[in-house]
Amino acid sequence: MSKQLTLSVSPHIHSGRSTWRIMLDVIIALLPATVAGCVIFGLRALAVIALTVASAVGFEALFNLITKKKQTIGDLSAIVTGLLLALNLPANIPLWQCVVGALFAIIVVKCLFGGLGCNIVNPAITARVFMLVAFGSMTKAALPTIVDTVAGATPLAPEAATSLGDLFLGLHGGAIGETCAVALLIGFIYLLVRRVISWHLPVVFIGTVFAVSFFLEGMNAVAALSAILSGGLLIGAIFMATDYVTSPATAWGKVLFGVGAGVITVLIRYYGVYPEGVSFAILLMNIVTPFIDSWTKHKVFGKGGKKA
Amino acid sequence: MAFSLHGVHVPHRKNTANSSAVYVDPPKTVTIPMSMHIGAPAKPCVKVGDLVKVGTLIAEAGGTVSVPMHASVSGKVVKIADYLTSAGSTVPAIVIESDGEMTPDEALTPPVVDSKDSLIQAIKNAGVVGLGGAGFPTHVKLNVDPARIEQLVINCAECEPYVTSDTYTMLTRTEDMKTALEAFKTYMGIKHIVIGIESNKKAAIKSMMQLMKDTCQGCKVDVKVLPAKYPQGGEKVLIYHTTGKVVPTGKLPIDVGCVVLNCTTLAAIGSYLATGMPLVKKCVTVDGGAVKNPQNVIVPVGMSMADVFEACGGLTSEPSKVIYGGPMMGVTVPDTSAPIMKNTNAILALTAKETKLPATTPCIRCGSCTNTCPFGLAPAEIAKAYDRKDAVKLEELSLATCMECGCCSFICPANRPLVQTNKLAKVFVREEKAKEEGKK
Ligand code: SF4
Ligand code: SF4
Fold first, then answer.
1. How many Å lie between the alpha carbon of A92 and the closest alpha carbon of chain B?
2. pLDDT at position A141
3. Which residue has the higher pLDDT, B129 or A272?
4. Whose CA is nearest to atom 8 of ligand 2?
5. Average pLDDT over every residue of A246-272
6. Which of residues 2-61 of A touch B (CB under 8 A)?
7. Residue B343 near residue B37 (C-beta atoms within 8 A)
8. Which of these, A181, A177, A153, A152, lies nearest to A166 by C-alpha position?
9. Are residues B261 and B139 in the same domain?
């Protein structure tokens, strides 16, 4: 035999899952919301998305170039971060702010912490919060361009009175990708089918928000339903909170994360100074994830006698 | 049993499951290494030039944890060479030139077994080791107080992809299995026999049901049909799924009253008890994308892989890896001169396509590894602790529990070398402990 046989440690076959494919699946799952956002908010939304994604990828490439690291943009994670950030921005945001947001997400939150897998908090969420605090970007959300309603600010603002149907279709003010519930749910189903994420975290997160809102609204189911359909809850629970890197590994860990994030979201919505609490809630839960992970480890088989 | 343990759904690729095994023509030479088992190497008791027949003793057990070796062809001893084992040690290997006759040694007669001790001695004389993979001398495993054995578990899971040689045993060697089981019942007082088998082997399940029906006289029998989920045949996994018992870390099956024997091991014992012919031939699954005619073959121990592939029509393309055993836990070889061992159940010549791995990226903390590990270990954490060279943390993470089944590496989307890291980490912890001991 002429060619050298490969020597390697077992196993010699692989499931075929890959980081690249998972990232691609997330991008695919975000497409319905991306398209919906462009339809609802018009060309300006498309510009925001394109610029933010391009900046995110560009900054990561540049960082790797300058620090002489192996190029990593091929793993598609920068596109995911850029797209998620863009979908969390209002369509009327000044374009330069998109670039700054992408810079913050990629360089400060991701690369400086060591790149993919090493960041402590989710880059897109953190950048969103940073922009909210720094620019107040999110307080005056864009309005849909395809309807001529004067719905005011986002439905979470006091003067809001959006019908459940409009909430479901996303015909109201808000960030580009967060308003269309239908599109987000399609993405959720895709992620479940592809087994990219498990149901635990999003379902518990959204369920908790529903339950607590229901209670605080005096057992009003319609109000609770509109609470879960408005703001950034769906996109946050389905796409941002489930980020592998910054959420717990085990099913019970995900449940804990979901409950915590749900409660914090509602508390901020009701008692905080900002109208929306999802980002803050996820950010806070990102920070406690290492603790959740250590509390919810699997019991090792045969350790200390019996298996749980 | 409350929960079933995690695992992975591996592709079965049991292409050879329905093929009856073919006897191949004896090779020109066989190379019989003195170490095909865990424990001390055997000591050669023949010289160059000696004439041997099939079954002739050529090496004696090198200690308590060791087994004797026997000639697998008739012919002449031509060389006693050095042989480098895959574990990295050098042992002698006896090379026999075949006369092409395969004449059995006429001195072989069925052993006289009338007690537990004579049964154990017979198993030792048969040269039988664990044929499911590990190659641990079977007589050592069985040499326990029979009163401690609550269940004899027969491992018929055969969970590795491609491999079907145990299926062959189950379909065609039930007589041998029965002979061995009857001896265990009579001389070791076995009261409960449990068979663990994966649900995808319909014909074998039927055959095992019949075997249990025939063996149930004075003994409780069970055939547990288990999901075809890797690593169902892992010893501790099988015990848990068939008996509900948890073998604690660092303990042996016998500590929970179980003895596990692979079905082919059992058949090898039975065949010796019935005929006196020791373990000198093996049914081996020959498969992989590079093999022209994948099939099960019956070959003498010591036949080179190259000769076996040749007997299966040769290789159609350059394999990228050639391995002993299944693709999940098998061992790669540097070249195909490597001989068939007693515990070789398959040899695979895999193409680059079959062994394709995704790109390695940093760990994305997806949790798949820990959620897949049958023992609930956290391979990603173990890797981090090993990077920091933190022996204390490694012990805390129960590194020693890892059975190196490969589920974690198989599932990891970042293609982290998790099993490899666990192996290295185990060596590291052992060295650290040795250092500690040295200081005291
Ligand atoms: S499966 Fe791989 S990528 Fe996922 S947590 Fe484990 S080591 Fe990291
Ligand atoms: S850590 Fe060990 S026991 Fe667990 S899946 Fe990986 S190889 Fe198997």
1. 33
2. 58
3. B129
4. B405
5. 93
6. 2-22
7. yes
8. A181
9. yes
Residue B311 corresponds to which tokens in the numbers above? 């007997």
Q: Is the CB of B412 under 6 A from ligand 2?
A: no
Q: Which ligand is nearest to the CA of B412?
A: 1
Domain boundary (B235, B257, B275) is at B275
CB contact under 8 A, B413 and A18: yes
**A 82-121 → B contacts, CB under 8 A:** 115-118
SS3 content of chain A, % helix, strand, coil (to 5): 60, 0, 40
Cα B10 to Cα A192, A273, B231, B284, B350, distances in angstroms = 20, 52, 9, 21, 16
Percent of chain B with pLDDT over 90: 70
- Looking from the CA of residue B367, the nearest atom of ligand 1 is 5
Q: Is the pLDDT reported for residue A156 higher than 60?
A: no
**Residue showing tokens 């002739």:** B56
pLDDT digits (tens, 9 = 90+) for A6-18: 888 989 999 999 9
Residue B138 lies in a domain: yes
User: Of B97, B128, B145, which residue sits at a domain end?
Assistant: B97
Are B224 and B183 a contacting pair, CB within 8 Å? no
The residue contributing the CA closest to ligand 1 atom 4 is B366
Domains annotated on chain A, with CATH: 19-293 (1.10.3430)
B131 and B253 together in one domain:
yes
| A306 pLDDT tier (thresholds 50, 70, 90) | very low
The CA-based dihedral angle spanning residues B132, B135, B140, B143, taken in that order and rounded to the nearest 10 degrees: 10
Alpha carbon distance B242, B226 (integer Å)? 8
Q: Are strands B69-70 and B151-156 parallel, antiparallel or unpaired?
A: unpaired
Find, among A217, A157, A26, the residue nearest to B366 by Cα: A26
Regarding whether B270 and B129 lie in a shared domain, the answer is: yes
Is B51 in the same domain as B166?
no
B66 and B204 in a single domain? The answer is no
CATH number at residue B132: 3.40.50.11540
Question: Does the pLDDT value for residue A109 go beyond 60?
Answer: yes
Residues B256 and B120 in one domain: yes
Distance A78 CA to ligand 1 centre (A): 19
CA end-to-end span of chain B = 44
Q: What is the CATH number of the domain that holds B48?
A: 2.40.50.100
List residues bridging with A249 in a β-sheet: none
* Interface residue A218 vs chain B (CB under 8 A): no
Indicate if B267 and B123 belong to the same structural domain.
yes
What is the B415 CA–ligand 1 centroid distance (Å)? Answer: 8
Which of B240, B363, B407 is the best mutation target for the ligand 2 pocket, counting ligand atoms within 8 Å of the beta carbon and taking the most?
Answer: B407
How high is the pLDDT of residue A126?
94
Q: Which residues of B223-241 are buried (b: 16+ CB within 10 A; e: fewer)?
A: bebbebbbbbbbbbbbbbb
Same domain flag for B126 and B254: yes
Q: Say whether pLDDT at A151 is over 80.
A: no
- How many structural domains does chain B have? 3
From chain B, pick out residues whose CB is under 8 angstroms from the CB of A73. none
What is the ipTM metric for this complex? Answer: 0.87
Is B102 inside any structural domain?
A: no
Q: Is B282 part of a structural domain of the chain?
A: no
Higher pLDDT, A142 or B70: B70
CA torsion angle for B217, B222, B225, B230 (degrees, to 10)?
Answer: -110
Q: Which atom of ligand 1 is nearest to the CA of A249?
A: 5
What's the average model confidence in pLDDT over B418-427? Answer: 94
| Residue-range definition of the domain harbouring residue B73 | 29-97
Model confidence at A172: pLDDT above 60: yes
The mean of the pLDDT values for chain A is 88
For ligand 2, whether the C-beta of B91 sits within 6 Å is: no
Q: Does B363 fall in a domain?
A: no
Q: If you average pLDDT over residues B296-314, what whole number do you get?
A: 93
CA–chain centroid gap for A265, Å, is 14
